[in-house]
Every structure is written in structure tokens, then in C-alpha cells.
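Project standup — Tuesday

K.O.: blocked on the structure for the chain from last sprint. Re-posting the sequence here as requested.
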Amino acid sequence: MEAVPAGEDAWGPGIFAGACWIRENLRPFRMKVEFAPLNIPLVRRLQTVAVLQWVFSFLLLAQCCVGLFLLLVLARLWLLVALYVLWLYLDWETPQTGGRRCEWVRNWTVWRYFKDYFPIKIIKTADLDAQHNYLLGFHPHGVLVAGAFGNFCTNYTGFKEQFPGLTPYLHILPFWFRCPFFREYAMSVGLVSASKKSVTHVLSKEKGGNAAIIVIGGAEESLDAHPGNLTLHILKRKGFIKVALKRGAHLVPVFSFGENELFFQVSNPKGSLLRSVQERFQKIMGFALPLFHARGIFQYSFGLLPFRKPINTVVGKPIPVVQTSNPTQEEIEELHQKYLKALQDLFEENKGEYGIPEHKSLLFT
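H.V.: unblocked you, prediction finished:
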């Protein structure tokens, strides 16, 4: 009988490797717990509560809303169910036709505390003429796109003041608008579908004044949202270029410094078992499942709340686009390269200001 190598058991090397992986990736949870002091000012506690409700909304509110709808069905409240189903039928296309924002919700005081927690700032580098429509490419995705939400779904970071006359629309996966009740909340802050129809609708406004914000890297990029990582998934993403050409919308690169610093993520390099499972799930479901952790409510050692790291969202200079009803592949490729160059220049011009070492550069994949 062969001897079992040291460190392995009778279950074989597969289980041993799995145990090693678990041991290494749970290391942060074995550290000494650092509790928050008791004398923290009330304003900071309110900021923590604001971010807690945002994380809950992002991770669990949609599921709770679906559960509420099922409870109505199980309780046989048929009138309420029938009325809401009728509403869904009549309102189904709204997320693709500009949504239904509510300035009262965007002005909730909770968003001011949310913004101050990090804090989140928007930095303007050039004027955007409200006589045009714009397609803003947001980079990087991060884990929970906190910068995109704070800047474009609330009225507390100064977008309206810095870019007067422009109305921002943040596009997210169409999947979220299929969740009963949650869809109403999502639209109230200015979220709309990321479908081609939706983006086209926003960029088709006569006389301009609309800004469609698309997180170009999408869910796939969230799997690379590790502190210090500057990998952007953009080389194969040219659909936004085609839409901009067809609608004559000017392109604007946006880089959010600090977006990837908010959470630690379980190590998932390309080719690893975990990454393969995550990518497979993302292809099937349309959204990714990054395994992340950061701090808690009453301690700083582990939890799902983001770290208090500054987010500085720099809005670049517009790239003029001439409307072309049937753009050729060469025209798409040319504008795509121009966009990549503008994004690279934006990053290089501002990285020193926001703590990025001189030797670090963006990696396009």
C-alpha cells in the first residue's frame, strides 16, 4: 500500500488542496478583531447606517421584494396581486424609456450621509454643453459601483451644479427591473435598463441634455475589483461605440479613483476553480458573484460594509461624435481607439493626485 504523502489524508490531494485554499482565504477572519470606539461622533454613526442600508438595498432588497410579492400571493390577497400585475403589464417598458425618477428620493438626507462616509467627489475637467447628448463610460466597475451610484443617482455630489442642464441616467442590468416593487425603487433614483433600446432612447432626446452613464466593464469586471488592481474589460466592448455613432452622442471617459479599494475580494486569479465557477455563473445569470469582505458595523476587521476610502470620480473631456446612421466596422474601431486613448490620458493626468504610483498603468483586456 502506498503511503499517504505528508499533509494529505486518505481523501486525496483534491481535498487537501481545497483545505489549503479555504485556510488561505479565510485568513482575514482569523485576525484580531478591532472594535470601533464608543465615543464615535453621531454623524459618523449616521454615515455608517446610511451605507448599511445601501449595501442591504444592493444585496438583499430585490429578494425581499420578491418575497413580499409571494407573501401576497400566499395570503390570497388577489385584488392587490391583480392590481400590481396589471400595473407591471402597463408599465413594463418604462425602464427602457427613460424610467421614472423622483427628485424627492434623490434628495433624501440619507444620501448625504452616504456620500460623506467615503467621501465621494465628482471632479470636472471640461464643460459639457447641454445642447448635446452624452454617453459617459464609467471605469472601473468595482464591487458595488459606489461612485457611480453616489454621483449619478443622488443630488449630493454636485453633478447638477457642475454640469447644468444635463440629466444623468445610470444604466444597469435589465434583470433588476423584473423584480416586483424593487423596480419602482430603482427607477426612483434614476436607474434605467442597460438594454440597447434604453440607451438609444436616452441618447435620442432632441436638443440634447441627456447623459447616459454605462459601466463599460460590466459584471465581469467586478471579479477583478481587488485593491490596487487596474484591469479594465474594454477591448471587446464596442457596442457603446456603435450606439454613440448612431445617435451622434459625444463620448466622455470617466475614471473613479478609489472604486477598487473599498473591499477585499477572495483571491480568484484567471484559471482558478473559483474564477471558473464565477465566470460560468455570470454567463448564465448575467450578473457576477464576487466573494468580498471589508468591515462591520461595530468593528473594523470583517464584514460587508465598505472601507472608508475616498472615491474621486473624474469626468474627462468630451470626444465629439458625428452621427452616422450605419457606421462601418472601421469607423467603430477608429472611435474605439480614440476612446481608449482619451481614457488612458485621463488616468495618467490624474493618477498622481489620487495616490496611484507613477509606475502603475491601466491594463486593458
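K.O.: great, moving the ticket to review. The chain has one domain: 40-364. The first helix runs from residue 13 to 25.
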